[in-house]
Model the fold of this input.
Amino acid sequence: MNSKILIILFALLATGNISYAATNVDTTITLKVKGVTCKNDLTTLSTNVQALNGVAECKALKGGAVSSFSITYNPALVTNKEIMAAFENTEGCSDPNSRPYKIKN
Done:
């Protein structure tokens, strides 16, 4: 009986009809971003990052020349590298051709 249940669970996992619980655990990180010059930048950055598949929330914690953002995401769906790239690839507020935002290490 137990072997039949295990076979069914394995088949469901293999076909994608059931997901492993660990892939649904959200992680929260804080990133510092340089190049922010106005409140609109904070909104634009948060919106662009939150649009990534797997990002549940991106909110500005502190504005200024170096701004802080809290990002809650599912690491099974999106990586830190992709999140950082979303910040750095966001168009500048005053010049849409520029990419003024950089992650501060």
